[in-house]
Amino acid sequence: MKQFSCADLGNKCNVVLIGQSEDRLVEMVSIHLREVHGMTSISQDTVAEIKKHFTSRATSDAAYVVDRILEKYNCDSDPACSWRYIAEAERILTGSDTVHSKELRAA
Predict the structure, then answer these.
(1) Which single residue of 31, 44, 52, 55 has CA 20 to 30 Å from 82?
(2) Can you give the pTM of this predicted structure?
(3) How far apart are the C-alpha atoms of 60 and 65, rounded to whole Å?
(4) What does the pLDDT look like over 63-77, one tens digit per residue?
(5) Which residues of 53-91 are buried (b: 16+ CB within 10 A; e: fewer)?
(6) DSSP reduced 3-state for 11
């Protein structure tokens, strides 16, 4: 899956679009740009620029998870944070318990 954030093109827009394929996502972005931002035509150069801003959905999900966990445990000031961080990240990203997550529940 691919993801595109309209703000990455410099628009003041919070829309994030997700598509199963690059081609489908280009189509969705084109429709959004036409209907919301009034772009009447989209050149090949614009399509190339749009594609530069595509991210893998798994990568963006992982980055989001990392940010939320760091906030939760305030890892900048807590030296015991690292094992909690590892445990929760493993549990969220793999969807299953690990040795670390069992330790997290016990703590």
Answers:
(1) 55
(2) 0.54
(3) 9
(4) 666 666 666 666 665
(5) ebbeeeebeeeeeeeebeeebebeeeeebeebbbbbbbb
(6) coil
Do strands 2-5 and 55-56 pair parallel, antiparallel, or not at all (unpaired)? antiparallel
Three-state SS at 6: helix
Residue with tokens 């209907």, as numbered in its chain: 35
Helix axes 44-52, 22-37, angle to 10 degrees: 110
Q: Judge whether 6 and 13 are in contact, CB under 8 Å.
A: yes
Q: What is the dihedral of CA 49, 55, 60, 62, to 10 degrees?
A: -150
Sequence spans of domains, the chain = 2-53, 61-106
Contact 39, 45 (CB under 8 A): no
